[in-house]
Design a protein that fits this description.
With 416 residues, the protein is mainly beta. The strands form seven sheets. A four-stranded antiparallel beta sheet has the order 1-28-27-26, with no helix packed on it. Strands 2-3-4-5 form a four-stranded antiparallel beta sheet, with no helix packed on it. A four-stranded antiparallel beta sheet has the order 6-7-8-9, with no helix packed on it. The two termini are 36 Å apart.
Length: 416
Amino acid sequence: MEAQQVHSYTCRDWVLDLCQLKNHGIVSSMSDGGLNLSPFDFTKNTIYRIPNAHSNSINRMRNIDYENLVATCARDSVKVWDFRCYNSGAVSTLTGDSNSNFLSVDSRHGYIAGGSELQGVDAELHMWDMRANNKPVRVFKDSHHDDITEIRFHPTNKDLLLSGSTDGYVNIYDLTIDEEDDALHQVINFGSIHSANFLSTKRIYTLSHIETLGIHELNDKSDELTEPKPIEFGDLRSSWDCEYVVDIYPSGYAACGSNSKNELKLFNFNSQEEKFDLNNPITFKGAHGDEVVRSVVCNGDVVYTGGEDSTIKVWNIPGSNIEYKLEFFTQNDIKDEDGDIDIRDDVDEAEAISVKPTTDADDEDEDEEEKNEKKEKKHKHKSKSDKEDKKHKSKKSKDKKSKSKKSKDKKRFKPY
């Protein structure tokens, strides 16, 4: 099936991310630090601009509520924007303890998290309470030793947070635990991370900068010593007949492109069965020319694409076989093995995460034997080889390490 282009918006610089707000339209983030809003009614050819949303390239943008709010991050800060009053500026500006260049951001459960570029020997992960002041309520300083390129909150468990980095690791944190080392619930050793996310309450995908894909099991808190083997798809460029992968969208599709062919393709993705329909792709002839497509958003039979040619294109796909939902992780989508909804009805989206500023009184009452038993159980879930590998890699010279990372595949995702 072939998509038909029906409209195009010309922007002032590279289009890096697209977000859909159902009350407003398509928000796009730019490499010049600006934000654009394109209404769903493209026949009016109207685009609203926030020219200086950030002082430099917006490295990542994410939906907060899918209706009015988005979060953005850049070298200067993490910001929250309300498009009911976007002309008034950001409703919140968040900064870290140091002058962090934020590369990744996510928001859920009333919290925002931002991941930074490598500074010195470590990259930092900050977390803020959206209802409190602008000071971080939690900071992880030693868990990654290179740029943090991905952050995702668990869709239903407010106490789990995922981060991915160019150091090759994806970390899952237990936010109920104060100590950073002990809070590291699981470590996945995969490769330089372009994208990672939860596919369901218990499954995680990882996509590397060299276009390799894996799907992994989220460790539980049982006494099982053996971690299930991941599903490895290998290098997608050969099996998908493409030159790069835009992203994997748990809401129902995957996107890949070919610069030499001036082409974009969408595949239907069943995240529950973890299968891609490679036999019935939707092709976008011409796409964004020989430039990279950075982001894709589906809205019924209409698809929006943004790319490094500084345009947002609108495509029509009558009778599309792409099945997707605007917000994938809802109560009707996330079910356990018994078919019941795997989320508490009394959990509000803005409910507080269990972030404990001090040691809980109950912990003080536990005797030493109980504490040791809990710690022993927790360490069973972490791959010993992965953790030892992390310790070994952290001792290397960061100057030598940065010089060795000269991959074109990685560079195209970092315009800053």
